[in-house]
């Protein structure tokens, strides 16, 4: 598979799902977050409602007769604590006859302001307000930062990704990891030291791997140069490859995402805190789809045969690679599994100046495909385009070394790497655009880790900077607009927390018997099934929270509905056995809806409804119940079998499915 040069496991939320009396929004801890992803002091300013503080300021009226001793007294603290609804302790007296009080823990500043309003309502209080935290503005001091135009706020002539505004909110989280599926990285680059995890090398062909063996636990880039001797001695591998020096492609991509920042030297990275997980899937000239697919699953924390489990699943996966051709089942199934586990996958559109529909994995479903733009906000001449592009980001122009390209970490070695080489270079390509999006996504997840992949894409697109009037881009060619990091991160903080189905990694799954329906018991995750949720929920899950539902067999089942205005479905193409044409499935209905025909479940074959019923209080099953549908009219035919559930905007319903099969008799 050729690739473009220069071109979670879902973090388990420590909150249980709400019961049927509430929509599927996670019930947040009423005392507020216990571990807030705040930037280091001097790194970024948390602004407005996105800030946190553990203190408030109070001043008493002059005629209230409350002296400093009384203000610090236990009786007064009890009065204030009762009014605020939270335990307060006296901290110190301050200038202007005001006093500083401590909260038991840091809360969002907006919540502290609300507590202060309760205190201000007391007759003896002149005013009370949150004691906000203030930081220096987050402008990196890296020596080459001024040349990274691609990070700057968009102005005429320089349409960067607006990173400074995002850094004023957050610079990353230690709980978020970003996987770079690429040629490996150079761990000893001074701007990548202490920014990476060990990762893994998935290049299975030793000659292509160029490191003396096949797969191993060393994701370092040994160099991907191709010589004329390679072409002559291994024509079946490299006969179609040009003679090239080593690209250090993965190192350049990794630097954009997370080079050490604010360290006074080199370049800045988009994420200053989160770790980079290198996953080596590309060797000399190319990488095989099979290796990349395994790398996708492993990066997301999913099991890969013969490979140790990934102890650091990535919430973001960057894939600056591709080739011509259809997406294919291998790619799509790996991507679907990773996204179902909570990983956001960002892919470069490709550098052929053609419609992206002809290039994989950019044409796969469930990925964020990124086109490249230049300083002026126009499509870079090389960038692929089309309706499958989701968003654009700076990829640069002018070629290697041009100040109009993207500056990041590199190495001066033409074949093997120069040790500890503090080298930086301008590259351009959609390979450079994608890591801008991946880095911003990691900031969005840092500030709101509950976001599901569908929400992330929606927020990126809804906050994108419109293409300038002079741009050669449009919504039909370059996606929703230009990446706007500040707006996306700000929107992520205010995004509603979805009650996402918690999908836990199971290394030793009990796959059970799937019968005549491939993966009819869902024990292989999303394998064979296409799943859709309008609200972005996971469908195939192994944890049902407080609903009281458990899988009928094994550990997995499907969960459709469960919130207001939700439409979700599962489907697969399947042959109805001539000797067993009766579809059987087990279901469990849990509903708060009191009226029929508002929340409805359907079983469809080729778009025709063969079974349907209202999901409301009258049809609640209380346990797993079997239903059988006669599909004799389709015996011997290959059809699209779909289970669909639609809920309205009032009460909501959940429809659980398990053990779908065919049988010979009703």
Summarize the structure.
The protein is of the alpha+beta class and 666 residues long. It folds into three domains: 48-130, 2-Layer Sandwich (Alpha-Beta Plaits); 145-494, Rossmann fold; 530-663, Sandwich (Jelly Rolls), CATH 2.60.120.
Explain how this protein is built:
With 666 residues, the chain is α+β, with helices and mostly antiparallel strands. The chain folds into three domains: 48-130, Alpha-Beta Plaits; 145-494, Rossmann fold (3-Layer(aba) Sandwich), CATH 3.40.50; 530-663, Jelly Rolls (Sandwich). Helix content is 18%, strand content 22%. It is built from 13 helices and 25 strands. It has helices at residues 68-71, 74-84, 109-120, 163-167, 206-209, 228-233, 235-238, 249-258, 289-299, 329-340, 430-447, 453-462, 485-494; strands at residues 52-60, 89-93, 98-108, 125-130, 177-182, 200-201, 275-280, 316-319, 323-324, 344-348, 359-360, 368-373, 391-394, 406-410, 423-427, 530-533, 540-541, 557-561, 567-575, 582-591, 600-605, 608-614, 625-630, 638-646, 653-663. The strands form six sheets. It has a seven-stranded parallel beta sheet, with helices on both faces. A five-stranded antiparallel beta sheet has the order 16-19-24-21-22, with no helix packed on it. Helix 8 (249-258) packs parallel to helix 11, helix 11 packs parallel to helix 13 and helix 12 (453-462) packs across helix 13. Mean pLDDT is 85; it is low at 1-50 and 497-513.
């Amino acid at each position: 598979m050729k690739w473009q040069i220069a071109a979670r496991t879902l973090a388990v939320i420590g909150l249980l799902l709400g019961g049927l009396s509430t929509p599927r929004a996670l019930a947040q801890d009423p005392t507020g977050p216990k571990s807030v992803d705040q930037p280091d002091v001097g790194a970024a300013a948390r602004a407005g409602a996105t800030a946190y503080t553990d203190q408030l300021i109070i001043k008493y009226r002059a005629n209230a007769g409350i002296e400093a001793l009384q203000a610090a007294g236990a009786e007064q603290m009890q009065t204030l604590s009762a009014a605020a609804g939270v335990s307060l302790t006296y901290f110190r007296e301050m200038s202007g006859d005001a006093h500083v009080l401590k909260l038991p823990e840091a809360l969002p500043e907006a919540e502290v302001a609300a507590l202060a309003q309760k205190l201000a309502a007391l007759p003896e209080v002149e005013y009370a307000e949150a004691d906000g935290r203030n930081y220096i503005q987050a402008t990196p001091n890296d020596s080459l930062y001024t040349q990274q135009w691609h990070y700057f706020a968009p102005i005429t002539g320089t349409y960067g990704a607006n990173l400074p505004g995002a850094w004023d909110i957050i610079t990353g989280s230690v709980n978020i990891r970003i996987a770079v599926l690429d040629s490996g990285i150079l761990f000893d680059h001074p701007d990548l030291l202490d920014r990476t995890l060990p990762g893994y090398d998935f290049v299975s062909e030793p000659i292509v791997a160029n490191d003396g063996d096949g797969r191993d636990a060393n994701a370092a880039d040994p160099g991907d140069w191709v010589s004329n001797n390679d072409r002559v001695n291994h024509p079946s591998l490299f006969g179609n490859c040009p003679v090239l020096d080593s690209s250090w492609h993965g190192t350049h991509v990794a630097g954009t995402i997370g080079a050490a920042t604010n360290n006074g030297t080199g370049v800045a990275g988009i994420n200053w805190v989160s770790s980079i997980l290198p996953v080596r899937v590309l060797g000399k000239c190319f990488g095989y789809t099979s290796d990349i697919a395994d790398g996708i699953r492993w990066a997301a924390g999913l099991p890969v045969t013969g490979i140790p489990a990934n102890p650091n699943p990535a919430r973001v996966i960057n894939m600056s690679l591709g080739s011509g051709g259809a997406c294919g089942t291998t790619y799509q199934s790996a991507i679907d599994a990773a996204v179902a586990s909570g990983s956001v996958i960002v892919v470069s559109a490709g550098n052929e100046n053609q419609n992206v529909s002809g290039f994989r994995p950019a044409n796969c479903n469930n990925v964020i495909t990124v086109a490249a733009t230049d300083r002026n906000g126009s499509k870079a001449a090389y960038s692929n385009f089309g309706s499958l592009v989701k968003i654009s980001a700076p990829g640069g122009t002018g070629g290697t070394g041009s100040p109009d390209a993207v500056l990041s970490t590199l190495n001066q070695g033409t074949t093997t790497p120069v040790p500890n080489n503090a080298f930086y270079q301008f590259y351009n390509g959609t390979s450079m655009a994608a890591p801008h999006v991946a880095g911003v996504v990691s900031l969005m997840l840092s500030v709101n880790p509950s976001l599901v992949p569908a929400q992330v894409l929606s927020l990126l697109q809804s906050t994108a900077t419109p293409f300038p009037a002079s741009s050669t881009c449009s919504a039909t060619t370059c996606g929703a607009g230009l990446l706007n990091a500040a707006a996306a991160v700000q929107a992520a903080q205010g995004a509603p927390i979805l009650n996402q189905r918690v999908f836990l990694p199971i290394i030793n799954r009990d796959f059970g018997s799937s019968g005549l329906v491939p993966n009819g018991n869902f024990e292989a995750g999303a394998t064979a099934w296409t799943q859709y949720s309008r609200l972005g929920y996971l469908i195939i899950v192994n944890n049902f929270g407080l609903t009281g539902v458990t899988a009928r067999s094994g550990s997995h089942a499907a969960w459709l509905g469960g919130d207001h205005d939700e439409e979700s479905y599962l489907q697969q193409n399947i042959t109805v056995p001539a000797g067993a044409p009766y579809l059987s499935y087990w279901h469990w209905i849990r509903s708060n809806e009191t009226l029929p025909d508002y929340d409805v479940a359907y079983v469809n074959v080729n778009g025709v409804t063969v079974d349907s019923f209202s999901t409301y209080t009258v049809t609640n099953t209380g346990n797993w119940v079997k239903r059988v549908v006669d599909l004799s009219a389709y015996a011997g035919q290959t059809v699209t079998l779909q289970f669909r559930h639609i809920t309205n905007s009032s009460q909501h319903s959940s429809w659980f499915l398990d053990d779908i099969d065919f049988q010979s008799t009703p």
